[in-house]
Amino acid sequence: MMTLLEAAARHVEAPVHTPSDRALTLEIDGVVKRYPNGALAVKGVDIQVGQGELVVFVGPSGCGKSTLLRMVAGLEAVSEGEIRIDGRRMNEADPADRDIAMVFQNYALYPHMTVRKNLAYGLQNRKTPKDVIAAKVAEAAAMLQIEEFLDRKPSQLSGGQRQRVAMGRAIVRDPKVFLFDEPLSNLDARLRNQMRLEIRKLQRRLGVSAIYVTHDQVEAMTLADRIVVLNGGLVEQVGTPSEVYARPATTFVASFIGAPAMNLLDAVVDGGRLRVGEAAIPAPAGAPQGPVKAGLRAEKARLVPAGQGLPFALEAVEELGATRLLHGLAAGAPVVVAADAALPLPAGPLSLTADPADLHLFDARQGGRL
Amino acid sequence: MKKALFGPSLTPYLLLAPQMAIVAIFFLWPSAEAVRSSFHIEDPFFGTATFVGTDNYVDAVTSSTYGRAARFTALFTVVVSVVSLGIALALAVSADAVLRGRATYKTTLMWVYAIAPPVAGLIGSMLFDQHIGPLKEFAALFGWDMRVGFDYADTAIAMMTVAAWKQIPVNFIFFLSGLQGIPNALKEAASIDCRSPVRRFWTVVFPLLAPTSFFLLIINITYALFETFGVVDVMLKGEPGNNPVTLVYKVFLDGFRGQDLGGSSAQSVILMVAVFLLTVIQFRLIERRVHYA
Amino acid sequence: MTVSSDPALAASWSRATAAAGANRRRRNLQVYHHAVLIFGVALMMAPLLVAFASSTYDPIVIHSEGLQLGYGGEFASTYGAVLFDRGGFTGDITGVRMLWNSVILGLGFAVGKIVISMLAAYAIVYFRFPFGTVAFWIIFSTLLLPLEVRILPSYEVVQSMGMLNSWTGLILPLIASATATFYFRQFFKSVPDELLEAARIDGAGPVRFFLDILVPLSKTMMAAIFIIMFVVGWNQYLWPALMTTDESLFTIVRGIRQILQVWIGANIPEYNKALAMAILAMVPPALIVLIFQRAFVKGLVETEK
């Protein structure tokens, strides 16, 4: 388990906000979620979120990211461990008393209430004075540009507008923490990109800490101050997007973060050589001897005329506009190579090679970074 | 299952209390009472009850009037269900296919649902009346001397006619909604694959209606067994004499007229078992519908 | 078909005849469907038209000439008499009173059932508590046995509680069947979980969530169940017939049984009044079904499955 300080210490380049500089808003401390049937959804997780920080939980479905978020919200009971907000233990607190606000995947707007009532409902329940409610609703509506819809019902709104209302409902609460549960997954691709940017700007502007759950690694990379990669109920890695991308801690992170996924080859370090099948390329300096998983990003792989690396058999080409992806077999293993689309397609027999510094080596069995 | 529920507190008990009280007093208690008294013979004068084991059941099942009522009930149920379902299906298919006037037809055909069975029985008994009934006159045109109220078979036919008529709207509504639930693309695909509308109906549409039909069959059986009480009672004018009666009507007659509490209760319990079986089938169906709907 | 020297022309001509054939078949099919529906409308409406027409005739005319299909001119006097004349053994009950009693039964039954079953369904769906599953099965066992099969012991229970000839004794046993609870349970289960979660974050407790969110969301469902239950309540026959011997509590449907008993032994039965009563008994529930047709069909089809 990597703590915040360790993470900070390992920063390659100092991020704009170092989490350790700030006060901690949310602490998730050794949290376990065990269902009545004994199944473990979350197997002991520690995460700290600093003031104003946006932390993205990312992972495949079933990795425990939503369960974790729902435990923070108080919608699921915590089996073991502790959740603290502003230093106060929250395990037993009612969702309404945790000073959080949540944006749901399907928005969960009250269908029978107007947008205005949807925004005001939580404040009314807190006995907030009417004029204060009106002012807050107006402010949030202006911020989100939904003033003209205030008297409509959710069913009369488009997906993007509903999304804004859901955001507005979170904003008017002035929470300590925003919780986003895959809020953009019901939108089409174009709207998703636009809303993603807006969420980021809004969160920065309000300076409120946020947890954002998604299965989409692009969303994670573009939004996060820090990414928490979860798998099978455990944290695989915590770090800034660039860190997680540049130095994946495990083969899982390596294959999950980045598109196309990092190429992973079964290889053996043999002296200064990295052998893959019958062929070999130079190994990184100081690599431990023996079998490893060798990782290579598609954009770092280079194709050269045959004979200077791993023999490469081209199978298919995907044109992406600026780049093209070349799918093929390198020493029998499937690999992807990204190439500049402006350059002509290489012809004739090819080999694949890479700068030793671009190679990531992982433990062959455990998958941990070497 | 809901993911986040309210935890244990007094609230759910308070919410359930009214329903549970009513169920306990007006359902569990009488049902238990029916089972208990089905094993006893009660003396109406002294208010004593003697345990007689299964005698009441044996007496009930072996009596000739029970056998007659049971046979009639079976026939009644089958005829009412089949006739009513058949007519309703034909009407629903046409109402679904017709291009103009669909709403008007639908409204006209369905509002009869609101008529109470005894009201239908009253109108029916007049239509079949010995002196004033146009249907009796109509039958006479074919040399059929219909003597409803006096002749066993004629009375049975009249009762079945009225009971089936009353049930047409419900079946119609369900069939029509079932038909309208079939995606248009499917109907269009079928019309490309098969020219004959009749064949199309039996090979594509009808199989898709199967869940609705099976569900309706159960509904109709329950209706014919129990809800036709009003039809039967009014058409017999409360005087069964030698006329056909359904099993539920016999439970009522033996209990309230004959003061045979044990025998009536035994018959009730037999019916309970029958309904129980029907309902189990219906529930299995509901589960399936819920899963695939 | 004529053989044309121009194959294209021949092809287009044969396409045209094929299309004409398809059109003709489609037209014939429409004619068939209209014929079926007109037959159906006649089948459903004719008995009611005869009943209404005959109710406007003098009973002597009906007695000598049979049921009628015209207007007999006695509408006002017959219906006036049925509605406003005091009758029965006590000489105290009028048609208006019986209609009013039917309204009370229909409303009491529908409202009582909706309120009680919504509360119970809410407890079952939205709370986790030890007794929940047991309660569920007890309540749903009532779906197994209609009142008709346990009519005699039910009568005795109500009698022993001294509730014969009372609205309570009339309505409560009818409410004992949990059909509406079942419908509301199904409906509540279909309400997205996130609404409860959002409401809890918004600080709504059990009562507030029920009143602010669930009840407003259930409006169409409540309307649909109300219509069906009102009609079912209005049309009750056997139970009121046993329960109410006090004529001031007679409903109009119950009154039909009474009119038959007066009728037996009469020289010339008052056919017209009996039919007028039948018409009066069917008009209010029919109007409700017609006016709220959409909610009614929705309720019937969506709840019964």
List the helices and strands and how they pair.
The complex is a heterotrimer of chains A (370), B (293) and C (305).
Chain A: H1 4-9, E1 24-34, E2 40-50, E3 54-58, H2 65-73, E4 80-85, E5 88-89, E6 100-103, H3 115-125, H4 130-144, H5 159-171, E7 177-181, H6 189-206, E8 209-214, H7 217-223, E9 226-231, E10 234-239, H8 241-246, H9 251-256, E11 263-270, E12 273-276, E13 279-282, E14 290-296, E15 302-305, E16 310-319, E17 323-330, E18 333-340, E19 350-353, E20 360-363
Parallel strand pairs in A: 3-8, 3-9, 6-7, 7-8
Antiparallel strand pairs in A: 1-2, 1-4, 4-5, 9-10, 11-12, 11-14, 12-13, 14-20, 15-19, 16-17, 16-19, 17-18
Helix pairs in contact in A: 3-4, 3-5, 4-5
Chain B: H1 11-37, E1 40-43, E2 48-51, H2 55-62, H3 64-97, H4 102-110, H5 117-127, H6 134-141, H7 152-180, H8 184-193, H9 197-227, H10 229-235, H11 247-257, H12 261-292
Antiparallel strand pairs in B: 1-2
Helix pairs in contact in B: 1-12, 2-12, 3-7, 3-9, 5-7, 5-10, 7-9, 9-12, 11-12
Chain C: H1 7-55, H2 59-65, H3 75-84, H4 95-126, H5 132-141, H6 151-160, H7 167-175, H8 179-190, H9 193-201, H10 206-217, H11 219-234, H12 238-243, H13 252-263, H14 271-291, H15 293-304
CATH architecture field of the largest domain in chain C: Orthogonal Bundle
Oligomer: heterotrimer
The shape of chain B is globular
Quick one: CATH class of the largest domain in chain C?
A: Mainly Alpha
CATH topology of the largest domain in chain C: MetI-like fold
Query: Which range best describes the helical content of chain B: under 10%, 10-25%, 25-40%, 40-55%, 55-70% or over 70%?
Result: over 70%
The string of secondary-structure elements of chain B, in order, is HEEHHHHHHHHHHH
CATH topology-level fold name of chain B: MetI-like fold
Count of alpha/pi helices of chain B: 12
Describe the structure.
The complex is a heterotrimer of chains A (370), B (293) and C (305). Chain A has helices at 4-9, 65-73, 115-125, 130-144, 159-171, 189-206, 217-223, 241-246, 251-256, and strands spanning 24-34, 40-50, 54-58, 80-85, 88-89, 100-103, 177-181, 209-214, 226-231, 234-239, 263-270, 273-276, 279-282, 290-296, 302-305, 310-319, 323-330, 333-340, 350-353, 360-363. Chain A is an alpha+beta fold and 370 residues long. Chain A has a 6-stranded mixed β-sheet, sandwiched between helices. In chain A, strands 13-12-11-14-20 form a 5-stranded antiparallel β-sheet. In chain A, 42% of the residues are buried. The model of chain A is unreliable at 1-19 (pLDDT under 50). Chain B is built from 12 helices and 2 strands. In chain B, strand 1 and strand 2 (48-51) form a beta hairpin. In chain B, helix 5 (117-127) crosses helix 7 (152-180). The radius of gyration of chain B is 24 Å and the shape is globular. The model of chain B has no long low-confidence stretch (mean pLDDT 87). Chain C is mainly α and 305 residues long. Chain C folds into 2 domains: 7-55; 85-304, Orthogonal Bundle (MetI-like fold), CATH 1.10.3720.10. Chain C is built from 15 helices and no strands. Chain C has helices at residues 7-55, 59-65, 75-84, 95-126, 132-141, 151-160, 167-175, 179-190, 193-201, 206-217, 219-234, 238-243, 252-263, 271-291, 293-304. Chain C starts with 6 loop residues before the first helix and ends with a helix. The chains are: A alpha+beta (370), B mainly alpha (293), C mainly alpha (305). Chains in contact: A-C, B-C. The interface between A and C is medium-sized, with 24 and 17 residues.
